[in-house]
Design a protein that fits this description.
CATH architecture of the domain at 51-131: 2-Layer Sandwich
Number of strands: 3
CATH class of the domain at 51-131: Alpha Beta
CATH superfamily of the domain at 51-131: Ribosomal protein L30/L7
Length: about 150
C-alpha cells in the first residue's frame, strides 16, 4: 500500500521523528499469537524508566536570531503575534498547527528547538537564570600580590 505525501511543508514535533514511532500500514492483528502484552509499570528504578521512555517534546522554544528591521509589515506582525520584540528573545509555545505556520513564515529569522514540558521557562524564570550571583567573591588580596604568594 503506497502512502501519499503532501507537497506542503509541515513542521512536526521531534517526537514524531525520534525513531520510536514508525510509519506502518494498518494490518489486522494476528490471532495466532497467544501472548498478551501489558504496558510496563514504572518500577522502583525510575532512572531506567526515563532512559527507556524519555520525556516527550511538547513545546517549541523559539529564539529570534536575525533582526526584522528592513522586512515587511507582515513579517513584523508575525513576530509580534509570536510575542517576540527583540533579538535573542526566547518564547515557548505548545505544539500546534497555528504556531508551526507562524514559525514557517519567519523561519529565516528564528531558531526553533523542541523541548519537553519541564524545560519550559516563564519570562521571570529566564530573567532569574540570567542574573549574576549576589555578593562579592574575594579572588586575591593586595597583600598577596606584593608578597608574591
Amino acid at each position: 500500500m503506497a502512502l501519499a505525501l503532501s507537497r506542503r511543508a509541515v513542521l512536526r514535533p521531534m517526537s514524531h521523528f525520534n525513531g520510536l514511532r514508525t510509519l506502518t500500514t494498518s494490518t489486522p492483528p494476528s490471532s495466532s499469537s497467544s501472548s498478551t502484552s501489558t504496558p510496563e509499570s514504572p518500577g522502583p528504578d525510575s532512572s531506567t524508566a526515563e532512559l527507556l521512555h524519555p520525556p516527550r517534546n511538547t513545546h517549541y522554544k523559539i529564539t529570534l536570531r536575525r533582526s526584522a528591521i528592513s522586512l515587511g509589515d507582515k513579517i513584523k506582525g508575525t513576530l509580534l503575534a509570536l510575542g517576540i520584540h527583540r533579538r535573542f528573545q526566547t518564547v515557548y509555545f505548545p505544539h500546534s498547527p497555528e504556531v508551526a505556520g507562524k514559525i514557517l513564515r519567519v523561519k529565516e529569522l528564528v531558531e526553533v528547538e523542541n523541548v519537553p514540558t519541564h524545560a519550559v521557562m516563564t519570562s521571570t524564570q529566564q530573567r532569574q537564570a540570567r542574573k549574576a550571583i549576589r555578593g562579592y567573591k574575594v579572588v586575591g588580596t593586595r597583600r598577596n600580590k606584593f608578597l608574591n604568594i
